């Protein structure tokens, strides 16, 4: 395979990669806007709850 063809294939792969990234970010932006419009008043839920420092100290007996 000559260097010109290798360069052309790499250029096409780079263009496909960039187009894919742009498409992904475009779709994500649209989905985020839809979520904002549809769920305006809903607060996001925490994935996990961490114990507060006071409760942790009481459980450990540190007063």
Descriptive notes:
- By secondary structure, the chain is mostly helical.
- Helix content is 70%, strand content 0%.
- It has 2 helices and no strands.
- It has helices at residues 3-38, 53-60.
- The longest helix is centred in the first third of the chain and has 36 residues, at 3-38.
- The N and C termini lie far apart (75 Å).
- The relative contact order is 0.06.
- The mean pLDDT is 85.
- The chain crosses the membrane at residues 6-31.
- Keywords: Membrane, Transmembrane, Transmembrane helix.
Features:
63 residues; elongated; transmembrane helix; mainly alpha; transmembrane
Q: Poorly predicted ranges (pLDDT <50, ≥5 residues)?
A: none
Helix content range: 55-70%
Summarize the main sheet.
none
What would you report as the Rg, rounded to the nearest angstrom?
A: 25 Å
Could you say which overall geometry the principal axes of the C-alpha atoms support? elongated
Q: What distance separates the N and C termini? A: 75 Å
Number of helices: 2
Strand segment tally: 0
Mean pLDDT: 85
Sheet/helix structural class: mainly alpha
Q: Please report which band the strand proportion falls in: under 5%, 5-15%, 15-25%, 25-35%, 35-45% or over 45%.
A: under 5%
Q: Could you spell the SSE succession in H and E letters?
A: HH
Keywords: Membrane, Transmembrane, Transmembrane helix
Transmembrane segments: 6-31
Short account of what is shown:
The chain has 63 residues and is mostly helical. Helix content is 70%, strand content 0%.
